[in-house]
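Example 3.2
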Amino acid sequence: PFVPPYPDFGICSHCRHPLGGTRVPQEISGFQRWIADAVGEMVERQSAEGFSPSLARFRQFIVDQVEAHTGGNRAAFCRALGLNEFTISGWLNKGERTSITQFLTICYGTKTRPVEIFGDSQSPTSISFPCSPVEKIRNRKACPRLDLSRQTDLQQTVQNLLAIGDGQSVSAIANEIGVGRTYLRYWFPDLCTSLSLQSRVIAQRKSESRRRQQQYVVRKTIRKIAESGGQISYRRVAKLLKHENLSLSEEHLRDAYRDELDAILRAKT
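Structure, written as tokens:
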């Protein structure tokens, strides 16, 4: 088959003219060029000697940059870069991993090449001062904080839902009352812990009840075959259970199948 040297269906592979109209060329911004160069340098030096990306070096780089720019104020540093103000705390305190977007955002904002962080030429612990001013890349939508009365009402609502004990998850409750899950876990950690425990317990009870009901169906099916005088076989039982949307491939159903067969054999002897 014909494979064009430039597989672009909008351009003629012979005359290189656009098909169906003229394309308006788009300029590449300085930010896009910086990102392309930064990624290209990392790819180029990934097997070079002395280039060793590690989580420990990245964390030390973050600590040094926050101290240099905002005097150790992590939230202010994140706001200046357009990140969530709890982003760095999640990396340093909770063991969360950064994404490539967040990593490049911090590097671009602090005017630091990624290869400078992980290379031998300049380590995160020996950053020259004064550092470049943090450049804000984008504006995040403001999230107004709730007043004290609203927080009290939310706390009472969460307590009432906990007392009801219907097993809702923290995420479901957050969606129901119109706030984020992180907000509830931050302001009401003890209540959220109790809600999560309650949700797991109730979910486990429902799962056990469903398993017992399915095992009862298996035993009932085997008894029905035995009472009719038919031969009890794995294939025959599996075929009948298929109409109930059940399968003997599940371990608890196979256990019920074997237990019922043993009970029938004991009854005959």
